Structure formats: structure tokens, C-alpha cells
Amino acid sequence: MKNKDFFEKVYAVVRQIPHGRVTTYGAIARYLGSGKSARVVGWALNQSFHTGTFIPAHRVVNRKGMLTGKHYFGFEDTMKQLLENEDIEVINDQVVRFRELFWDPAENLNK
DNA sequence: GGTGTGACAATGG
DNA sequence: GCCATTGCCACAC
Known about the structure:
Elements: H1 5-15, E1 23-24, H2 25-32, H3 38-51, E2 60-61, H4 76-85, E3 90-91, E4 94-95, H5 98-101, H6 105-108
Parallel strand pairs: 1-2
Antiparallel strand pairs: 3-4
The protein binds a DNA duplex through helix 2, helix 3 and strand 2.
């Protein structure tokens, strides 16, 4: 098995994020079992664009609920628009009620 | 195979 | 509770 499987898992989890919900890199990392490889999760999303594999990365934010990677969408407004389309309030690149919209894959997907 | 980087997280002050 | 530093894992060069 190649370590690239890690990327596949990341993509799979992000795709399984329900509509109108958001999650954090750390939650995904823990779900994958790495736990401390939260950075790799974000990195995988960045590579996903390069590989052509699109995933709702706008639903994935850091633990602060901030849209750190909005710039990677091409246009900063793109990520914000997508979130607004999901009934998610985004103010100043920050998800409002992020704590309420937080979706933990480890509990919902029940690994 | 070692070094550097990265859309982070946890801990300490 | 916020700011600064450290640790961490995976991938590219």
C-alpha cells in the first residue's frame, strides 16, 4: 500500500461532510489515525487542486474556524460564496457559529 | 537519504 | 483568553 492512501482518506472524509457543516483539519487527522498530522491534511487538499481532484475544501477550516486556504480557490470570494451557499455565515474569513456547525467525522462516520 | 516546506494543533507564558 | 514557540507527519527537491 502506498502512503498516498492517506490522501484518499482525506478526500473521502471531506466528501462525506454533510451539507451546511464544517470540520477541522485536526478532526480529520484524528479520524485517519495520524492525529498529529493535521498539517498533512491541509496539504493534501492543496495537492487535490493540483491533481485535479476537487473536494469541498471550503467546509474544512482550522481549529479557529478561519478560512485559511481561501486564496487557493483562485478567487477569495469563491470559498466564501460556497460557504454562504451552504447557509454558513462567513464574516472576515471566519465561520460564524463554527462551534455549532462543527462536524466530527470520528463520531458521525463512526470509524 | 537529508533538508525544507506546509490550508495545523497543542502547550506554555 | 490571546500571543509566541514547539512538535508533528507526509511529500517535493
